[in-house]
Amino acid sequence: MIPAVYRIERRIEEMPGTFTLSLLPGAREEVVSLRPGQFNMLYAFGAGEVPISSSGTADTPGLVHTIRAQGAVTRALERLREGDTLGLRGPFGNGWPVARLAGRELLVIAGGLGLAPLRPIIYAQLQGSMNVHSVRLFYGARRPAEVLYRSELEQWGRALEVVATVDHADVNWPGRVGVITAPLSTAQLDPQHTVAFICGPEIMMRFCVQLLMGKGISPANIYLSMERNMKCATGHCGHCQWGPNFICRDGPVFRYSDIRGWWQIPAL
């Protein structure tokens, strides 16, 4: 429960208000590693702490987190620069079920900042550390200026299928325009061998789940990363209770077949 002290080794401005921090532990701290989909609690001294998923890769030294400044704590983290320190608790959560992907076709669907928790999955495939048949990425953002990891998306597209779309384009956007469900609806999928990992706004995930099940994909092969108001990260404070579960302790990744009973209840 006591935050370890980490130093900011590198800071990347992804877009206005969104940034990536690469963190290294202090001399007295133990090095921790996160599985794809797990999260840490990042503590801005004097401001508080927030849950942030890992967006790093297996060969990246230290810990990597992509953060959007949208509250008091994340705005305090945004003001930090390379060489500054912050507190860190973790890792927490269950992560993506990579071990269940052997021989399967993986469908990665992300919206906006939801690409950050899925970025380690993409790099694991590129580095050959996942035993899957194939990986396909469908990514949607609101505007071209809000496309996360844009240069990396172009690099990924040389090695695997990447479909990127924006809701509202400008004259310089060369790709698709519209919601992500449009290209997903026309994609040819093998429902018996496809597993889907989804992260993004809940309304986007709802439509994607309906579409995938309409294509014959089993609810047991659809996984969602949920984002709610996590405070303690250990299931004690109750802030992130969702149905019978606590997202910090039992998630943040859930299999759709396990949560479909309360998935459609508004404001649960």
TrEMBL record:
Keywords: 2Fe-2S, Iron, Iron-sulfur, Metal-binding. Its cofactor is [2Fe-2S] cluster. One of its GO terms (biological process) is pyrimidine nucleotide biosynthetic process. Gene3D superfamilies: Nucleotide-binding domain of ferredoxin-NADP reductase (FNR) module, Translation factors. It comes from the Bacteria. Binds 1 [2Fe-2S] cluster per subunit. [2Fe-2S] cluster binds at C232, C237, C240, C248. Pfam families: DHODB_Fe-S_bind, NAD_binding_1. PROSITE patterns: FAD_FR. GO terms for molecular function: 2 iron, 2 sulfur cluster binding; flavin adenine dinucleotide binding; metal ion binding; oxidoreductase activity. Residues 1-98 form the FAD-binding FR-type domain. This is NAD(P)H-flavin reductase.
